[in-house]
Design a protein that fits this description.
heterodimer; A: alpha+beta; FAS1 domain; seven-stranded mixed β-sheet; B: mainly alpha; two-stranded antiparallel sheet; 54% helix; CO2_hydration (chain B); CO2 hydration protein (chain B)
């Protein structure tokens, strides 16, 4: 009942339908907790790619996830953009995969080329990371937030 | 009512090496945590790091400058520019300072190059011919083992067969033999001949870049031990685990310099990384597999002493019977001889107290080296567990079970009788 009242008086849904949604990069830039990821995407020169039409599915580690890596890991990667880009490309999959879509698959192939194991049997796990926020829609794809950086292998 | 949160525990492992698996699950190493083991492995890391400081420099020199020289008689005569080449992980100019010491060649190495074992300053050529020098043959044997096994994971090895790589190598080959009709004619007749040589040299560069990192890591561990800041075997292992992560993203590439121009045979922009394209293939090819050294095994097919499948090779340090391998001229013996020159005094005293003292010091230090490499392998296993699996204190029992399966699968490789994992559990193995 209350939601109907809210919808009836709130003009936002209408304006939303004409205004384009934000892209993957904009969402990460404006959301709290993605400073390291945004800085890494910029250092790896991937901003343009992630602003392109895609669509992409991005498994986005938050700041706490990056902070779990041993000291020096990020420093070396940021010094070497092609290597950093490869690690980031492992977090991106072509196509738009929602949590519901991912229940149908066991693995996805990342843009980097290596497979990513998906486990939705008990929660929502991507390799050895847990998804802490799923299905954040962008106009060029979808974001699932991870609690750990995932690595190939 | 109060509830207590209990950490989930798994039932005991039933694996043959259950005790070691439980130790790994508790954050330990395959090597038992004793002060004697710690002293041996740290002392050996230091003794290894000094010749390694030569190996990485010379591997890069051969890959980048000697290149396809058909008579490379002076490839072990390292020019000053390569002795001064700043290590990217030591000294003031480091990208990431792992060792607090200098970036140029280690002072003990420079002293040895000058005076050798004979402790006399003689012409370089005399030291060389008397074999009073760093045994670079060991480093070359390791690079060749990586090249011979190939396909040990990562993207580096498949790239060597790509058209892009062949085109890059072709440019460098033509430039190198420019004005040399004999060699260019040979190249036209046998187009794969030099490309295959360049592939081998790419592995020289790969190993050189790998060891450029390991030398400062080992020097720093030795310094921390001397300062009393590394006091247990797990601390030594964890220093290595952190090092593996810190340097994981270091680029692996192969550049060649011909008449002042740089030819990028494998450019840094390929994104090849220290962890995936150098460290893991190195551990697989050199620690586990390598090849049986001539004189220690028969290569006669009827004798069936050498496996038919390359994947079944198990001649690395983790399986080595150090006594026969310690015969003259065999690559690991050459390394042992190199390490003998740079042992810290505490290890010299230690070896003199045991077995035959000075007379079998090479064997004793070879076994310490084996212990130290079981510690490095433990670090690799724990680093892979950290990267690909779950924390040791994970609250989810499914995750702990996945860790258990990983540890058990790793230790399955040491069930074969040649493996020395059983031996290193005991201090009397020396």
């Amino acid at each position: 009942m209350s939601s109907r009242i809210f919808l009836a008086v709130d003009p936002l849904p209408l304006t939303d339908s004409v205004k384009p949604m934000a892209d993957i990069v904009d969402i990460a830039v404006n959301a709290p907790g993605f400073k390291t990821l945004v800085a890494a995407v910029q250092a790896a020169n991937l901003v343009e790619t992630l602003k392109s039409p895609g669509p992409f599915t991005v498994f986005a580690p938050n700041d706490d996830a990056f902070a779990k890596l041993p000291p020096g890991t990020i420093q070396t990667l940021v010094q070497n953009p092609p290597q950093l880009a490869r690690i980031l490309a492992f977090h991106v999959v072509p196509g738009k995969w929602t949590q519901t879509d991912l229940q149908q698959v066991d693995t996805l192939t990342s843009v980097e080329g290596s497979p990513i194991r998906i486990d939705t049997s008990d929660g929502f796990e991507v390799k050895n990371a847990t998804v802490i926020a799923a299905d954040i829609e962008a106009d060029n794809g979808i974001i699932h937030v991870l609690d750990s950086v995932i690595l190939m292998g | 009512m109060t509830t207590t949160l209990q950490r989930p525990t798994l039932p005991p492992s039933t694996h043959e090496f259950a005790e070691i698996i439980h130790r790994l699950e508790a954050g330990g190493a395959m090597l038992p945590d004793t002060p004697e083991n710690l002293m041996q492995i740290i002392g050996i890391y230091k003794a290894y790091a000094v010749p390694m400081d030569f190996y990485w420099r010379d591997l890069l020199y051969i890959a980048e400058r000697v290149f396809l020289n058909p008579l490379p008689a002076f490839k072990y005569f390292l020019p000053q520019s390569y002795l001064d080449l700043p290590n990217h992980y030591a000294g003031e100019t480091a990208d990431l300072r792992v060792w607090r010491g200098e970036a140029t060649a280690h002072p003990e190495l420079l002293a040895f190059i000058e005076k050798g074992e004979v402790q006399k300053k003689l012409p370089k050529l005399l030291h060389h011919l008397w074999h009073d020098r760093i045994n670079m043959e060991f480093a070359e044997a390791c690079a060749r083992a990586m090249f011979w096994h190939r396909g040990m994971g990562g993207q580096f090895d498949p790239y060597l067969d790509s058209e892009e790589y062949k085109a890059n190598a072709d440019r460098a080959i033509r430039a190198y033999f420019q004005g040399n009709p004999v060699m260019l004619g040979l190249y036209r007749l046998f187009p794969d001949l030099f490309v295959e040589q360049v592939r081998e040299l790419s592995y020289y560069a790969n190993l050189g870049l790998f060891w450029e990192v390991m030398a400062p890591v080992f020097f720093e561990m030795s310094d921390l031990y001397d300062e009393g800041k590394i006091t247990t075997v797990p601390e030594a292992m964890n220093f290595l685990v952190n090092g593996i992560f810190a340097i994981a993203g270091r680029p692996i590439y192969h550049h060649v310099y011909i008449r002042g121009e740089c030819y990028e045979i494998i450019p840094k922009s390929k994104g090849f990384m220290w962890l995936y394209e150098a460290a893991l293939p190195y551990v697989e090819a050199v620690f586990y597999r390598t090849s049986p050294f001539r004189g220690t095994k028969s290569y006669n097919a009827q004798a069936r002493e050498v496996p038919a499948d390359q994947k079944d090779f198990h001649y690395g340090i983790l399986y080595a019977d150090v006594f026969p391998v310690g015969s003259a001229g065999i690559p690991p013996t050459l390394l042992m001889q190199d390490m003998l020159h740079f042992l810290p005094p505490y290890l010299v005293d230690y070896y003199q107290e045991h077995c035959r003292g000075e007379e079998d010091m090479l064997i004793q230090l070879g076994i310490s080296f084996q212990r130290s490499m079981y510690n490095v392998t433990s670090a690799v296993i724990q680093a892979l567990r950290t990267a690909l699996l779950y924390p040791l204190d994970d609250p989810n029992p499914k995750h702990l079970q996945a860790n258990r399966q990983f540890f058990e699968a790793q230790l399955d490789r040491f069930r074969r009788p040649e493996a020395r994992l059983r031996d290193i559990q005991d201090q009397s193995y020396r």
